[in-house]
Design goal:
Radius of gyration: 29 Å
Strand order of the largest sheet: 3-2-1-4-5
CATH superfamily: ATP synthase, F1 complex, gamma subunit
Structural class: alpha/beta
CATH class: Alpha Beta
CATH topology: Pyruvate Kinase, Chain: A, domain 1
Largest sheet: 5 strands, mixed
CATH architecture: 3-Layer(aba) Sandwich
Number of strands: 5
Strand content: 5-15%
Number of helices: 5
Order of helices and strands: HEHEHEHEEH
Helix content: 55-70%
Length: 281
Amino acid sequence: MAGRIRAIKSRIGNIENIAQITKAMHTIAMTKVMRMKRRLKQSRPFISSLEEFIADLLGQVGPEMERDPLTVGNGSNEVGVLVLNADRGLCGRYKADLNRRAAELISGGGKLLAGGEKSRAFFVRQGIEPLRSYSYLYDTPSWDAASAIAEDAIELYLDGEYGRLVLVYMRFVSDLSQRLVVEDLLPVGLEPRTSDILIEPDLPALLAAAIPFYLRAKVYAAILETKASEDAIRRQAMKSATDNAEELLKGLTRAYNKARQQAITREIADIIGGAEALRGG
């Protein structure tokens, strides 16, 4: 009986420690989600306006003008997939959903750009070596990280490694809802829009500068979306883990109290029995 009581008490202590950790991780994730939501509130209107601007520029390209190489096919039939996944675990379904969708897209022999350690490690275990991998590059989202990824994507496209690049990430809808998104990144497929804008000094030079900038901004926005989703899912997972730990603690505490009561009752019975034996002797 004493051994069972000690075992229950030890387990209670272990679960209390786990609950403290998951509660702290829940708080950290919640803080990160709030911070990312503020950044998303700024980035979404910017990306929308930038897409309209690029569409206006493309609408100025006449039939006699040479198209920017990032807006037309390069002759390759290969498909490239840029997946933006997590560097760390404990985020529920997040990493598995992204890896599964990316694996489906390259199942016919596509090329992979693996964002996040969880993506790189998953595909290496499957025997797939990424063209590029970005482990621990954007755990804290930054413009520099997005620029590095976008520049690699552009270089590989211009070199003909793939003729179409697909971006796979998780879009943040709300604290409790995230949506897996698959979007074409290259070639740039925005619908040209007719407008009366004046362009100086010349359209080709402006497109050559604006389109790479747009691709950097697009990757940056996708990183913000996917990191906000990761933190939101991790917050949910840690909340569930903390709740489960508290439920386990309640059950173990009842079992511990019951075991102690039984031990005390047995000890009292032994004392009474001994006293009765002495009295009878």
